[in-house]
Task: structure prediction
Amino acid sequence: MIPRILIASDNSDARSKGLAVRLERRGAVVATVPLAAIAFDTGSPSGLSIPGFDSTLPDAVLVRSIAAGSFEAVTRRLGVLHAFGKLSIPVWNSAQAIERCVDKSMTTFLLKNAGLPTPPTFAVEGRAMAEAVAERELPFTPLVLKPLFGAQGRGIRLIEKLSDLPVEDEVNGVYYLQHYVPRPGPPFRDFRVFVCAGEVLAMMSRRGDDWITNVNRGAVPELVSGHGETQLAALARAAAAALGADFAGVDIVPAVDGKLFVLEVNSMPAWSGLQSVVAVNIADAIADALLKFLADRAEAAAARPYRLTAPANS
Result:
């Protein structure tokens, strides 16, 4: 059977195109459709209307991006992914995994709950509660304030005194505060580890003059060497599993004493910086992993014995 793959992407970025090409080379039929274009439609057999699929459903959904929008629009798009799950369509990553990764407070809760090293973190509403946290913690360590929903290092700031806390309107009333992890620098380093289907595909270190070491902020991607690849891989696999992510970019930071802390798990990771320093083709590896998953799933379904259903008592 030829697998039909839906790539959910709200823009025609190079990574989505690359995934489509590699899946097609392996015999899949691929359609790239923005989640905004998929409608709930109770008149269709599945309850969904998907451009390019008529009244049929894909065999799997691969989520590359969810465009920004109103609260209502984003909620509806996540609802579409939940609906695919309800229809037993594999979704990489599922709506639940995306929600867990996007909400940094839930990410850190799940990392801590899984026993993984992550910095002490506090997520509170209102400046009064944020000030109470800062008054208690600042005598011992600076705090890092991050947007609850954010990526690529945008909106991150260091809090060293109470007056550094922004007003509520700047953070939509929610303060996500995390202990700053002291580390050597400059230059500063952290690690990005790419996990797919429970295996580590690749990893890099990011070196920058700024303590916020995102590539889009000028950090330089480099091969990982001499930094305990085995430990990094184990932490990244465990973090992705704790969030329920089928594929993820896991951010890990080394403290000045060498201890590693998991900071974030990205459910819709970019990989252009990582691809520039590693030999493995990441799009190829994702395509292979997804198609293997579908083949294994089909084989398991075919191996299940048929059950005869006894007639109901009249």
About this structure: Residues 154 and 161 are 21 Å apart (CA to CA). The chain has a mean pLDDT of 92. The helical segments are 14-25, 71-86, 95-102, 104-113, 127-137, 229-243, 272-275, 282-303. The two ends are 41 Å apart (CA to CA).
